[in-house]
Amino acid sequence: MTTLLDVEHLTLDLPPNADRAHALHDVSFSLARGEILCMVGESGSGKSMTASTLLGLLPPGVQVSAGRIAWEGAGNLLTLPDAERRRWRGSRIGMIFQEPMTALNPLRTIGDQIGEVYRTHTRLTGSAIRARTLEWLDAVQIPSPNETAKRYPHELSGGQRQRAMIAMALALEPELLIADEPTTALDVTTQAQILTLIRDLQRRKGTGVLFITHDFGVVAEIADRVAVMRHGEIVEQGAAQTILTRPSHEYTRALIAAVPSLPSAASATSATPNTSRASATLPVSIDATPPVLRIEQVQKTYAKRSWINKKTHAHTAALRDVSLDVGSGKTLGIVGESGSGKSTLARAILRLMTPDAGRILYRGIDLATGTLDAQARRDALDIQMVFQDPFSSLNPRRRVGDIVTQGPIARGESPREAHAHALELFELVGLSADALDRFPHEFSGGQRQRIGLARALAMRPKILVADEPVSALDVSVQAQVLRLLSRLKAELGLSMIFITHDLRIAAQLCDTLAVMKSGSVVEYGDTAAIFRSPSHPYTRALLDAIPGISGRSRDRLNDAQADAQALSAA
Predict the structure, then answer these.
(1) I want to staple 383 with a disulfide (CB 3.0 to 4.6 A). Which of 368, 421, 463, 528 is the partner?
(2) 249, 223 in Cβ contact below 8 A?
(3) pLDDT tens-digit readout, 459-473
(4) Listing from the earlier edge strand, what are the strands of the sheet with 3-13?
(5) Number of H helices, E strands in the chain
(6) The whole model's pTM is what?
C-alpha cells in the first residue's frame, strides 16, 4: 500500500506553567492509503493533540518544536500556508470532532452546515447540494432527513448531532479521515452503522483513517494497525492482531483488561428467566421485596408547535405506557438507542417534566402529579441525578466545594456541616480535600464525574439516577467509576436507575434490565437471563451490534483480555 502520511519525530511544547513540558514527545507513525490506524490511550495521552497538529488547529501557547509531517513522502504539512491548509481541510483531510455541540454552529441549520462543505470546495448547484446533503443524512441513519436538515443543533439529540457531524466529515470523501472518538456518544447499533460506513469509504476510495479511541472493543472491530499513546508518547505500535494477542507494554494490557465484558454462559445459567412483555401491563415482580420506586403506565407525548401561528403540527410519543419497578438496594438498568425514551423517563422521575398519564410512586407519593405539598417535596429530594456530561452540569464559575454544598445548605444544613460532609464524600469518591477549592475546568473528565457523584450524594439520596454517567470516559476511568458505584451502592444502601446505551456496562452493574425502543419497554427481566437468552429481536440486535463482541473480533478481544489479565496477575 502507498504511504499517505508520515509523522516523524513530532514534538509539541506546552506553555511554561503546564503540568508537563511536552504535549507530544518524539511521536512517529505512518498511515497508508486504505488503512485504518487506531490511536488508543486515555484522556491527556496526546491523541487529540496529534489530530489537531495534522489539521493545523493547535491551541494558543502550544507550538511545534521538532518533527515533520510528510504527505505521500513529500512536502511538510507543518509548513503549508494558512490559506492552503484551509483548502485541504474538508477536501483532502476530513475531521470528525469528539464534541459535536462545540464543533457545530448553533446559529445555522444542520443542512446549511453540511451544504457549506460543498459550497466551499465544489461548484455544485444549490439543488445538487441539497440532494447530496439529504443522501448523507440518510447514510448516517438520521431519521427524517428532510426535517432534520431544517433543524438547529440544539433541536437534535447528542447522538443525532454526532451523526450530522460525521456526515459533514464524509461529504467530500476525503483522502485522510481523522475520527476523534466519533462513536463514543452513539448507540451500539448506530456505532456499528458508522463503523461500517467508515470501512466502506476506506475500501471503496482507499481512504486512510486515523481513528482515535479509548475502546479496544472498537479496535478489535476495525483496526489494521494500532498505536498506543500515554503522556504524549507512543509506548507501543504494530499490527492490530499483534497488539491484541501479544501486547508488550503493561499500559496496553491494562487498557485491554479494562474493556467491559458480557456475562458468560456459565454465570447466567442460574439466572431468573427474563420476561418479555407489552409495556402497557403493570410491572412484573422480579424481586420478592417490595419496590422502593414503582413506575406505572407512564406516558409522555411531545408536540411540536409553529412559532408563527402556535399550531401543533407534529407529535412524538416519548413514553408509551412504561411500567417498571426499582428494588430496594438494587440497580435497574435502562438501555436503548437515542430517542427510545430513557432520558425522558429519568426527567419524569426527577420531576423535571410532568408525564401526560401514569404514576411514579415513592413512599406513597405520586411524583407524576403536577403539585406536591412541602413534605412530599422534601421526600422527592431522596432521588438525585448524576448527569451524562459532568462539565456542562457543573457551574464553571464556582469552586467545586460550593457546588457540592449548595444543595444541602439550601435544604437547611449549616455551612459547617455541609462542608464537613463534602470532605467525607470527596474522600469516599477518591478525591483529595484540596479539590474543594478548585474550579471544574481544573479536573479531568473522570474527576469531574466523581464531583458530580459527590454532589448527588451530598443530598443523602435513597435512589440515584445515573444518566449515561460513564459514556464519555476512558475505559480505565470507566472501570474505576463503575467499581465506585458498586461500592457506594453496597456501603450506603442505595437503589439505582442506571441509563446507558452500552450493554457491556449494564452487564457489570445492573440486577434487572429494561430494554426500551420508541418509548416502549420491549423486554424486562433479570440482567443475566436477558444476556443469556434475549427474547425480543431488538435486544438481540443491540447485543449483536456491540463492538468486539461478535464473530472474529470477539475472539480477538477475548483472547487479548485473557492474556492481559494473566500477565497482570503474574
Answers:
(1) 463
(2) no
(3) 999 999 998 887 767
(4) 22-32, 3-13, 63-71
(5) 23, 19
(6) 0.75
